[in-house]
Amino acid sequence: MADDNQKAKADVGKKKEDFEFAKILGEGSYSTVVLAKDKSNGQKYAMKILEKKHIIKEKKVAYVNREKEVLSKIKHPLFVRLYFTFQDSDKLYFGLSFAERGEITPYLRKVGCFDETCTKFYTAEIVEALDYLHQLRIIHRDLKPENILLNEQWHVQITDFGTAKVLEPGSSQCRADSFVGTAEYVSPELLTSKNACYASDLWALGCILFQFTAGFPPFHGANEYQCFQKITKGEYSIPDGFPAPIADLIEKILILEPTERLGAEEKGGFGPLKQHDFFEDIKWDTLMEQKPPPIKAYLPGQDLHSDMNVLDGMDADGQDDFDGSLLLAGLGLADQSKPLASQSDDRKALLAKQESNSPWSPFCNGELILKAGLVDKRKGFSCKRRQLICTDGPHLYYVDPVAMVLKGEIPWSEHMQLEMKNFKTFFIHTPNRTYFLEDPSGEAQQWVTLIENLQKKKKSVN
Ligand code: MP6
Question: Which long-range contacts (C-beta less than 8 Å, at least 24 apart) are formed by 273-279?
Fold first, then answer.
């Protein structure tokens, strides 16, 4: 495996024909990033490709030149590296390091929110990266989870410098200009005075730390305007149960006045930030040599939502009288011989009874309810009480039992993995997301058994 300097030396005077181009990795505002393999040595790169005509038409030549200037300055393991550039008659090509694990965002989305160890490690790497970047007098200005990539060893690789700014010596503010970052992560000073400063990146860091822990960003609204309103007022709330050191650090960063933010030059810079209690056990000097922790969900304590009352109109545990285990036996589905979806007379009879008796029938597309009951569906710190309905589709629908509206479906897949944590809590691991469910009536085992039986049944029928 060539190291960075070997890769840099070996890549002098490249041209398009030297590479095999594969999948598109991502689309930037004025570019496409494509996986490319050097035919001479098999080395993989992320090739950023820009259309000259488009750049000129959109008056982005300065933007491209600035990005190249910034990328050429940055030589650090926590950033994507620019190895070479070349052009042909109509395109520009930037050869950059390929971050094998891609963006951190899908991993966060899958687990809902990171556990504290994971949050701490990745936040520390971002802090280390910003410390380096600011020493080069560069402000990123659009730091967000989508721009945080992970390399093959699961270390951070920060990317996307198209909107970065290089400050003049002696100034810590950049001249006001029209750029505003991505709504949820943009700092108040960028919205009010259009002046970005080093502390603007610290604001984004605070938002990312919040999102790693909660599973959603601190400032969000139905549209950008609502989001900006909350940001300029510093209007956000820390969910109950947030780990105290994280809450304290967020509160010390998400401060409207940039000079007051922990990590700001006026507050002593990155030293005091790295010394915050939250980073107490971080060994800063060897961070990049450490093995990153596994990406795991943060499972807020069971009592976080003890005020979740059983909704009116539901019997104690919200269990419908169409209890799946009875129906499963009734349809002979408990044994392995009968076909799953046979339109048997007893199924039709049960379906008729279900349609006249069960309030959940309208959500089930004419499928038979095998089990239905109230569950708390958790994602990070958000918790929604839903009526979970397992049918012989098989499908897993979930309904808002108050509004009586179908809210969605846990995508059925033969690759679904069921995990029972305790008699109330179980997980449904699907390829893109893990569903964290709590059954207040303590029937986690019944849910897991039913769903696994249906998976087996479906596999045997297909
Ligand atoms: C990405 N930018 O490897 C990526 C990258 C890789 C994957 C997914 C998204 C990637 C880069 C990159 C350099 N190396 C990479 N996405 C960015 C955020 C956007 C959406 C703007 C293209 C960017 C260099 C920077 C100068 C533009 C990936 C890897 N495996 N599977 C997916």
Answer: 273/127, 273/202, 274/124, 274/127, 274/131, 276/245, 276/248, 276/249, 276/252, 277/245, 277/248, 277/249, 278/120, 278/123, 278/245, 278/246, 278/248, 278/249, 279/120, 279/124, 279/127
Alpha-carbon span 307 to 249, nearest angstrom: 27
Specify burial of residue 235 (Cβ count, 10 A radius: 0-12, 13-18, 19+): exposed
3-state secondary structure 285-299: HHHHHCCCCCCCECC
423: its two tokens:
């008699």
Pocket test for ligand 1, best of 21, 23, 25, 160 (most atoms within 8 A of CB): 25
Q: What is the pLDDT of residue 329?
A: 47
pTM of the model: 0.81
Q: Residue with structure tokens 């944590």? A: 421
CA of 166 to the centre of ligand 1 (A): 22
Q: What is the CATH number of domain 323-461?
A: 2.30.29.30
Catalytic residues: 142
> Cα–Cα distance between 171 and 169 in angstroms, integer?
6
Write out pLDDT tens, residues 111-128: 888 999 999 999 999 999
Q: How many other C-beta atoms are found inside a 10 Å radius of the C-beta of residue 426?
A: 23
Write out the DSSP string of 31-43. -EEEEEEETTT--
Give the H/E segment covering residue 66. helix 61-73
**What rounded mean pLDDT belongs to the chain?**
87
Phi, psi values for residue 396, rounded to 5°: -125, 95
Can you read off the two tokens belonging to residue 61?
A: 């030549």
Domain ranges of the chain: 2-97, 102-289, 323-461
Cis peptide, bond prior to residue 145, ω within 30 of zero: no
The architecture of the domain spanning 102-289 is: Orthogonal Bundle (1.10)
H helices of 76-176, where? Answer: 105-111, 116-135
- Rounded to an integer, the average pLDDT of 265-285 is 97
User: Region 243-251: what's the mean pLDDT?
Assistant: 97
Superfamily holding 2-97: Phosphorylase Kinase; domain 1 (3.30.200.20)
| Predicted local distance difference test score (pLDDT) of residue 306 | 29
Inform me whether the pLDDT recorded for 307 exceeds 70. no
Distance 25 CA to ligand 1 centre (A): 5
